[in-house]
Design brief:
The protein is built from 1 helix and 2 strands; from the N terminus they run H-E-E. The chain is mostly loops and about 70 residues long. Strands 1-2 form a two-stranded antiparallel sheet. The structure holds zinc ion.
């Protein structure tokens, strides 16, 4: 992790019962990175489900992120 933005923000957000969403990664080779929330464009039977995207640079300071620890 290149910066402490996520941890610092989590500490400030705790009073609002909120924290930055980090995905649950079950593949050991993949790093834990902040998730960019997406939404499904079309819903209904047979439509593909929305996929998640991950930020590889800190969305707050711009540093490259290798992994986020919580
Ligand atoms: Zn940062």
């Amino acid at each position: 992790m290149a910066c402490d933005c996520i941890a610092l923000l989590d500490a400030k957000l705790v009073e609002h019962n909120t924290r930055i969403k980090l995905p649950l990664i079950i593949t050991p080779d993949l790093p834990v990175l902040p998730m960019i929330e997406t939404e499904q464009v079309e819903s209904g039977m047979g439509k593909k489900r929305a996929i998640g995207l991950f930020a590889t640079y800190c969305p707050f300071c711009g540093d490259k992120l290798s992994e986020v620890q919580r």
